[in-house]
Amino acid sequence: MNKRFLSTTLALTIGFSSFGMVQTAIQPIQVEAATTNAQNNAQAVAAKADQLIQTGKSLMGQATYSNSVYKPTYPYKFSCASFLMYIFEKNGVDLGTYNENYMIQQGTYVARNQLQKGDLVFFKSKKTGTDPDHVGMYIGDNKIIHMADTKQNIVISDLNSKPYYKENYVSARRVLPTLLSANPATKGDKIVENALTYKNKVSISSTTNESSLRFTAPAFVDFIYRKSGVKLGSTSLSSLMSKGSTVARANLKKGDLVFFNSVKGSKKPSLVGIYAGDHRIIIPNSDGVMTRVLFVDYYAQHYITAKRVISTK
Questions:
Q1: What does the similarity note say (predicted)?
Q2: Are residues 154 and 67 in the same domain?
């Protein structure tokens, strides 16, 4: 169900400690619509969908519903959206959000009669507001797997089994073709893959010691690009922001650098992120390396600019 905040026993950080609490009301900034990567073949997408389904089924009877706690260890606790975030991340696909009202803005629209395995399916039972309040994943044969509620927990439901699914159906989104890397991977894909590989392996602090995987935020960015064959040659935010060519938010592509301030209206950067495609950014800050989505109000209010430092050809 729809939620604004989650707590976690494994320190899943909801806000950014460097800036205080993040506002979470939906206020999407303008970024390009997600597009299916033509180089991503159907076989790869289908194989990944099967992995997601297998992981989801393996958690049946192992997890309980919670709208306020995210616990990714046994005994698991998930909301409907954080359940999907977990099974995607366990299979190497980072949605970057645990909110269904953000998930519904990812990927590409798909009609109900064209659903495929791995598609996200959204419902809204509340009579007020416009946000969906439930999400599940399509697994084929007109069925979804989802964290239903406190009584059912994780279940598989036929979309024709109850009036709820017909009367409250909102939309469906196909996210796998837009989230997976191209084959062969582009330079931007490689940068994003490297950043995600180090996501839980590095610490972000005020000093850099590469041998111990401790970095300042800009030094981490420089490190990831070097690992990807791109020499930025800069470990300061202002210097990074002077690199490359300016790119509009509507034209962001994987591997672009996105800069934010801590004081609205200031041109002095205090945060840098790596654009990861489909509205996601990889953020190094004092809480570690995190993936977030650009739909959060904070980014619209504190956005400065974006720079393209690699060739996207």
A1: Belongs to the peptidase C40 family.
A2: yes
DSSP label at residue 251:
G
How far apart, in whole angstroms, are the C-alpha atoms of residue 214 and residue 208?
Answer: 5
Q: pLDDT digits over 3-39, tens only?
A: 544 544 433 333 333 333 333 333 333 444 455 555 5
Report the CATH number at residue 264.
3.90.1720.10
Element (H, E) at 277: strand 271-277
The candidate with the shortest Cα–Cα distance to 146, out of 35, 28, 209, 53, is 53
Residues 191 and 174 in one domain: no
| CA gap 189, 96 in Å, rounded | 16
Residues shown for the chain: 313
pLDDT tens by residue, 187-213: 999 999 999 999 989 999 999 999 999
- DSSP string for residues in 26-78: B-----PPP---TTS-HHHHHHHHHHHHHHHHHTTTTEEE-SSEEB-SSSEEE
3-state SS class at 246 = strand
The enclosing H or E element of 178 equals helix 176-179
- Of 303, 306, 296, 307, give the one whose Cα is nearest residue 264: 303
**Domain encompassing residue 253:** 187-308
pLDDT in tens, 145-193: 999 999 999 999 999 999 999 999 999 999 999 899 888 889 999 999 9
